[in-house]
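Course exercise 7: structure representation. Students receive a sequence record and must write out the corresponding structure in token form. The form below is the worked example handed out in class, using DUF1611 domain-containing protein (344 residues). Read each field label carefully; the graders check that inputs and outputs are placed in the correct fields and that the protein name is recorded exactly as given.

STUDENT ID: A-19
EXERCISE PROTEIN: DUF1611 domain-containing protein
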Amino acid sequence: MATPHLHASVTRISPLSKSPCTIRPLERSRWGTGDYVLAEVEDPGPASTRLELCNGRLVEADRGDLVIGALGKRFATLEGTGDWEAIGPDGRMHALTEGGILGLCQMRSALLPPMLPLSYRGHVFLGGEPTRMADFAIRGPLRVLGVPTVLIIGSSMSAGKTATARVIIRLLSRAGLRVVGAKLTGAGRYNDLLSMRDEGADHAFDFVDAGLPSTIGPADAYRDAMMPLIGRIDELHPDVAVVETGASPLEAYNSDTAISLIESSVRMTILSVGDPYASLGVMTAFGVRPDLVTGPATKTAAGAALIEKLAGVRALDVRDHEAHPRLNSLLREKLGLEGPRGDD
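STUDENT ANSWER:
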């Protein structure tokens, strides 16, 4: 009996989980970012074995399992780095993310388990041609985003950006507004989008929908891939867009380019930080003055007070229900909306 394939969540935009495909090696000179490949799980040992499937569920991979993911790159400040271009002739690689970005791990934090080891078995072919994420990317009109937008940026990964987006989406949707959530940069997981939908977003998108496994790469290529996605969001005519950029604007994920693509529509900017001093660091280095600072650094009155002293910007723990009346008031002011009033 053939071993079933585990389709990682980077395959969710493709028909691979439902279509017959063939697997065969492809000469290395033809490999590229976003290629769908099949890899076999080696002995995981102490490595993390979790993989996120295309439906968002997590599974524990075991030795001999066959995984379909996408060649890509990761440069995470707190976890690790890896690159498909570093894969050697032996075809050994790793799952750089639970979502199925595949490449050779080059460095990881000593605080985390090793990444799941894999061996290349071949590229995924449909209709006689190798498949890549770009084949299934959103196609749409190239138009400027004209939707009032809440932009959420951060000081680093794991600074509370997605948690903040969920709160904002919840408040806006409960006020009866049509909301689109989006994560424009990073090396994300499908779970981020599912959580936005759970909180009431009518639609949620990320860079995977644009055909990118992560957003590391030349700015021009990133811009070309994202413009149809931005056009699709505008085409939906939501009342509000809640847009998150992964990592920080100063890292390798093209967040600065993403912000430049939507800045004309931004009505409110929220900075999420894990440390009070990081608020001033991002504001100074990136030249941005947010309307609000939030994140783990605001979970105590001491942290919020220090941020306001250092940066001269309002600090608020948006996950604190007692703060929601003030947050709602700020949203109404910045977005020019009568709502949201649901949690006042």
